Known about the structure:
Layout: H1 3-9, H2 15-28, E1 37-42, E2 45-52, H3 55-67, E3 73-80, H4 88-101, E4 110-115, E5 118-125, H5 128-139, E6 146-149, E7 152-153, H6 159-172, E8 181-186, E9 189-196, H7 199-210, E10 217-220, E11 223-224
Parallel strand pairs: 2-3, 5-6, 5-7, 9-10, 9-11
Antiparallel strand pairs: 1-2, 4-5, 8-9
Amino acid sequence: MSADATAARAPARSDDEIRNSVLMELKWDPKITSSDIGVAVKDGVATLAGFVPSYWEKDAAEKAAKRVYGVKAVANDLEVKLLMTRTDPEIARDIVHELESHISIPAENIKATVRSGWVTLEGRVDWQYQKVLAESAVKKIRGVIGVSNKIEVKPAVSPADIKSKIEDALRRSAELDARRISVETEGSVVKLYGTVRSWAEREESERAAWSAPGVTKVENHITVSP
Length: 226
């Protein structure tokens, strides 16, 4: 019996089973140190509540919950409760240094504004991965409690070329059944439709879409059906 056939016949997990797995995944992840995280699950939607000491850890907790089989979506209501406060100028200086230290980030095209620990990134880059990398670099800086990423990606190719490149990327991925996913483009906006077996597959399909040059937005309408 193939792995796909086994997965297709696997019984749906109860909310209690999913909740227990999420709690175990949170304890397993070494990046998550907080013991003040509560988890509730209803109809496969996991809600995280409580406090964490950094925005980086809030993000890590969300990613951990999404890795759990049976989770269809995550509501991240965690609050960042800093162990030690820092001034906005201190945070801003660290952000500038962090962005400039990454060779893949065009720091000269990005402006960061800090207000009460909340960072807003603005500017223009050529690739989506540069936008994502800039946000990832800022997330881990001590004192940051949240990030608004308003960096724009400049379109570089035609919609038909974008669609073709994304479909090729989906077919190459060993983690996806590309036949279950359809791609539509409107200008530089990509829309994904279909069904996948896990949240991880849904995120992998979105990652593949973002990898195409010129993509400025991905609307992921793919549903998770374990």
